[in-house]
Protein: Thiopurine S-methyltransferase
Organism: Atopomonas hussainii
Amino acid sequence: MHLDFWHERWARNEIGFHEGTPNEQLQRHFHKLQLAANSWVFVPMCGKTNDIGWLLEQGYRVKGAELNEGAVLELFAHLGLTPTLTEHGSLKRYSAAAVEIYCGDIFALDQALLGHIDAVYDRAAIIALPDAMRQRYSQLLIDITEQAPQLLICYEFDKQKRQGPPFSVEHDELQSLYGGAYQFQRLERQILPSYLPDDVDATAVAWLLTASH
Ligand SMILES: C[S@@+](CC[C@H](N)C(=O)[O-])C[C@H]1O[C@@H](n2cnc3c(N)ncnc32)[C@H](O)[C@@H]1O
């Protein structure tokens, strides 16, 4: 999928994925990662999500990655923070207080630049990527976070009724992408009637992934 696809969606404000309030499953389940205060949480492909503000309020520090610079600037404005900017190859890093966002293609990020991560919160990131990219993305996340545990929120729906993104990512696929690195615990299945465009029903599934070795 071309990066312009996402820039165009942001330019046209076609951001139905953006939730107005912190994600409910995040609030219900994040404590199950059992993180200490000040832990670093990585939020890949974060957009301008309100989930980052919620994580900060809980006493965590947040690193994120997002392609669209306008989204990153809106995120900081909404948090009431003025970031400083540094450049790292093709990536820009915006940072303020306990937040660092890498702006650019997530596939340009490496472990040395990202630094230590205690946990990953993936909501609508892996499911935003087409099949071949999900394979690359899952390996990237394992590598750059050194297999940090994850709270992963996926959406499942009838693939005949809707082409992605989002893509319906189910347990068998997660097992093939992450099964070599993680054990899975399904925390919740929440049925969301007419959640997707064209009245397509979806099920939000929250997974806890913990390193298997
Ligand atoms: C479906 S949205 C989810 C955003 C956020 N996680 C949320 O819950 O609101 C996917 C996001 O990934 C970003 N994105 C897409 N491809 C990317 C890439 N290669 N590197 C970094 N971000 C990317 C898009 O700009 C978009 O903001």
In short: The beta strands are 40-43, 61-66, 84-88, 91-96, 99-103, 119-123, 150-156, 182-196, 200-211.
